[in-house]
Amino acid sequence: MPYPCFRRISIFVSFMYLSFLFLIPSVYALYEEDAGKFDWHKSLLGPVCHARFEGNFLLLASSYGAVAVASASNSDGSLLWRQVIPLAAPVALPVRDGGTMDKDEKPAVKVLELVLHPQKRLVMALTRDPSTAALGVWAWRLFDGNLMWHVTVPASGVPLGKRVKAKEGGFLALFPDTVGAVDGETGEIYFLSAVDGTRIWKAPAIELMAVTGVVPVDGGTEKGVVVVGEGSDGKAQAFLVRLGGEKAEKIKSVSFSDGGLISHGTPSLHAFARPAPARSLALLLLSPSSSSSLSAADMQLVNPSGAKATPHGVLSSPIPSSHPSSLSASCLVLSDSGAVVEITLTQGKFMQRLVAPPSSPSLPLAFRAGPYVLRGEENQGPGVEVFRVVDGQSVGRVRGRRSLRGLWAGIRGGWREEEKEGRESDLLVLTVDKAETLVLQTMDDRLVWLREECLADVAQVLIVDHRPPAEGEKRSGTEDVTEALATSPLFEKLLSVVLPPSPSSSSVRDPHFGLTKILLFLCAPSSRLIALLSSHGGTILWTRDLPSVEGREGARWRMVQQGDEVLLVGEGGEGLAIWLDIVTGHEIASLPTLGLTPPAPSSSLLLFPIASSSSSSSSPPRLLLVDTRNATGHRARFLDGSSCAQGALGGREAGTEESLGDRPIFYHTLSTPSSGGASLQTYRLFKPSSAPSSPNWPFQSAVVGASSLPSPSELVVSTAYPDVRETMTAPSSHPLGDGALLLKYLNPYLVALASTASLPPSPPPASLNVTRDEGSQEGRRQGGDEGGKEVSTLYVTLMDTVSGRVLYRVSHFHVQGPVRMRLVENWLIYSYWNCKAQRTEIGSITLYDGFIDRKGLGLFTSPEFKERTSSFDGDASPVALQQTFLFPHPILTLGSTLTARGITTKALLVGFEPGQILLLDRRLLDPRRPTALPLSKTEKAEGLLPYAPHLPVLPPHVVTYNHTLHGLHSLYTAPSSLESTTLLLGVGDLDLYFTRLYPSHKPFDLLPDTFNHVLVSLVLLISVVGVGFLGKAAQAKALREAWA
């Protein structure tokens, strides 16, 4: 080969290798070994109602029946363990559309007391079960949360007249080896063994109308409890109940100094001891009357003493302490003016001393932690002020965040009563606001951790793509934000080619694959918006409190994405619209009013996206807002991003320059009254020729279609709509084993209705296309054999929301809810409980639009079919196939996988009890699964499985692993840039779970974990060096030949 040619080839190869080397930093791949490392699980508590510091441990209990232990030293606020107390019996509640219920409708076990047994190191809770009204005592081990024992006390037969009506109460009294449980409703006392919960003795019911306090008495030989409450005469009474005694010994019957009864309230109780050697017990009773009388009784005195109102205001209640089990020599009482008063007992007389001066007239909160007393305000948030009990001197203030709802404090490492001087640096302050944000801070205002417990009340979720914030952008709520994504320099990218990827470097690769998402949670009723990052354990990006709509406190909000913005529409009053930046949370624009005059209720507004008529595919969707209060004609307007708000605020009348575009716009309303029956009405949007009455609402609508269920007694229990993203990316046909094609019926305007009725089985009207599967026919025969007895029947109806036509309808007998539904492409999946067979069943329906023979599509042949199908075509009814399967667990919710291009095979996501998620292959639920064996060649070539009614639950396909999502109710999926990968978010009452899924079970666009990147890099480097060496050798050889 001549030298010039060889030189040009070597230069070209060297240039290609160097170019490939410089392109390596911009090429990324996700390794299989990275899968699963970024899954995260958040355990929530809900609204915290009890908190208690025990050394470095923090005991927590919520109103949702959850008991947990957290560490005061963790920086992330993670729970060491959590236990959710289950209901003893299921409670039947009405199911709303979609199979969901409001959080307020979901009953939960109520935690009455939460204490720590100091000798046994057991976390003990006294609970009330609303389903059975039974009292329960639970004991868990402090360090790992293992349940040691549980005792249930059944509801007593005490007449209702002797039970407290205003509040369900209960109290625990702790002894070294014994636990006393007092039923506040009946006055019954149970003494249990602290070791195994064995009942030692039960005291008879005390003749009290309401028990308001219990104090343990352990005097060596004498052991028992002092019970204080309201007697039948309306006066406060105290009883001493000795362990093993035959009856309750009455100590005092205390009447207040003003001589009035207390039937309009209950007295509050606090007990404290006189200094040694007397060691006597004093009972302090505070009257709820406006006269603010103060009564106290010493067990060693004959007559109780009383005191009138103090000059600092009405004494409302004793201040709770972080060590209520130990009796102190004084009692701190909070007045209605915010003053803290110390009361001591000296020679039968009660002395008062001012510890903290009065504060603002807003509702105060106070808590005692060892030598300190903390005071905050409930309605305002200036902070929490700390005072020393000894001299009443203010030692500092902990900065508040929002209006407080609860206040607790403790000393890190514990505190002994003999310690007169406190350790201010070890003081920990725990606050919870009305938005259910739990914050733990130190005395120097350092944030230890923060927990957003409002995530237990999620009303709506959006999953959007993440983009790094632009230079100079700052996220909203920066004090609560941890920057999670960073850009690596070029050296780190080159180094990542040679060395194995680290978890920190994976954050660089994630944005290139669309694996990093922003999760937007709209929490109700706190009206709080929280943005989480899907990677890095669900890091909080920003938080924002939504304003209240004028005329309606705590208004309902709706959230819709518009490009890089999110629109929030507040319903109630005249309406409110706010546009926020998704990445930073900053407000871009807002409309103070939507022009709803008169104010409209929340159920009269419709908000949904409309595809933009712009030719650019990147244009954000237009949002249509419809006011449906006028039944004869609705009015509507578009909300086209924040620009429409800026134009309206700049003087232009919003909506006057808007147009409907080339395509007609249809929408529908679905009425599902609780009395039964359902009706669907379809409307078409138009712009009237005359000027509209309101310039803010330039469009009107007219009815173009209507439909209703055949029977007015049918009650709609669930609805399902298709996901537009799935319909647009789904393949239009399904290949068969012989080369033929089944055309899918892909209609984005479908709606599936599940309705129930207790009627004898009867054939539907002839105009409806009704089929029944084998199980339905069997149910009909069984119903007929019952002699005309009413049978609970489930009807599943598929309707077109544009024309209002019923496309398909099927019935099932002996069915009980709740019904779960999921509509995916041309596939409807629904589950129900067969109360006759006592099993969970899953129905599968697929819709097809036609069939193309394997010879019908070729070079010279083409099938005859319409490119576009109209909903108003009378012959557009699909061909439906239906089959029923059996599932071994009760189903909580249904979902489906979603990929970017729809190439990967769909899979069903099944949330089943006790809170697990199963990835179920779609082929298992195909109604075309053949029942005849053996399978034909075409069936084998297509991959059809023989029909088997029982669906398997394979442990490798349970995507939640060993996690349990309590109260699982929703599944959200989002696509990534990798076609094989789907992102899943599971939302429960007290849990959030995020993971990556592979619907095909074999990721086809990921590098295997055995990929030898070191060897590839070495081969590349040796090749570059070899080419350079050979080039120099060729040049030297050519030089020698030239001189020869």
Automatic annotation (TrEMBL):
Residues 29-337 form the EMC1 first beta-propeller domain. GO terms for biological process: protein folding in endoplasmic reticulum. Keywords: Endoplasmic reticulum, Glycoprotein, Membrane, Signal, Transmembrane, Transmembrane helix. Residues 760-789 are annotated as: Disordered. Residues 825-1043 form the ER membrane protein complex subunit 1 C-terminal domain. Pfam families: Beta-prop_EMC1_N (PF25293), EMC1_C (PF07774). It is a single-pass type I membrane protein. InterPro entries: Beta-prop_EMC1_1st, EMC1, EMC1_C, Quinoprotein_ADH-like_sf, WD40/YVTN_repeat-like_dom_sf. Residues 771-789 have a biased composition (Basic and acidic residues). The chain crosses the membrane at residues 12-31, 1011-1030. One of its GO terms (cellular component) is EMC complex. The keyword Signal applies. It comes from the Eukaryota. The keyword Ligase does not apply. It is found in: Endoplasmic reticulum membrane. SUPFAM superfamilies: Quinoprotein alcohol dehydrogenase-like (SSF50998). Component of the ER membrane protein complex (EMC). Belongs to the EMC1 family. This is ER membrane protein complex subunit 1. It comes from Nannochloropsis gaditana.
